[in-house]
Specification:
The chain is mainly alpha-helical. It folds into two domains: 49 residues, Arc Repressor Mutant, subunit A (Orthogonal Bundle); 127 residues. It has a three-stranded antiparallel beta sheet. Helix 7 crosses helix 8. The longest helix is centred in the first third of the chain and has 21 residues. It is elongated and about 60 Å long.
């Protein structure tokens, strides 16, 4: 499989996006193991030749989708902050956790985390993406004398955040993204005075 990303035309990108959307819909309906390439292309309204222009097989499509969403989770959490800026948690508002809106806007994909028969390796990836983002980009300022920049603490934060988001998904996104964001900010403020994005 090619690791190097080739620059695709907007039309090719749209085609790939349609194939991914069809794939996600079908997994939600019948489980990963029961989805075929034929069903993906029929749902997306393409033919098998188009599918094989971009993907070797169903696992290749699944791998690209996982990698893309993993990267977007990491980017979404940091894009709004200037590198080196110091942010006080008391100044945070509902626009400060763009990850929540990202999950909500892509809930068909995040519902895959709730399935038993889902994309192989998907379970645990949300927490891992959040952890890597915290480790690589965030320097936290603790309230009190605690080492909240340690790996165990950031793992705890990542799994707690992912757990809250997955619990939200289990309820069918009953609460609004604003309510979930406010909950996360309240929790964050309880132990963090501020942070810097590197």
């Amino acid at each position: 499989m090619k690791n190097k990303k080739e620059k695709l035309s907007p039309q090719a990108e749209r085609t790939k996006q349609h194939l991914k959307e069809a794939f996600v819909e079908l997994i939600n309906e019948k489980g990963f193991s029961h989805v075929s390439v034929t069903e993906i292309v029929q749902r997306a309204r393409y033919n098998r030749a188009t599918f094989y222009l971009y993907y070797l097989d169903k696992p290749h499509l699944a791998e690209e989708l996982r990698e893309e969403m993993f990267g977007q989770v990491k980017r979404t959490s940091t894009e709004r902050y200037e590198p080196g800026a110091d942010i006080l948690t008391r100044a945070m508002d509902v626009d400060s956790f763009e990850l929540v809106s990202f999950v909500y806007d892509n809930r068909a994909f995040f519902n895959l985390y709730l399935l038993e028969d889902t994309i192989p390796g998907l379970h645990g990836e949300l927490a891992q993406a959040i952890f890597e983002m915290l480790e690589e980009r965030f320097e936290l300022t603790a309230i009190g004398d605690h080492d909240i920049n340690s790996t165990p603490f950031k793992l705890y934060m990542a799994h707690g955040t992912a757990g809250l988001l997955m619990d939200w998904a289990k309820t069918g996104y009953e609460k609004s993204p604003k309510e979930i964001t406010e909950t996360l900010i309240t929790i964050f403020r309880s132990f963090t005075a501020g942070f810097r994005v590197n």
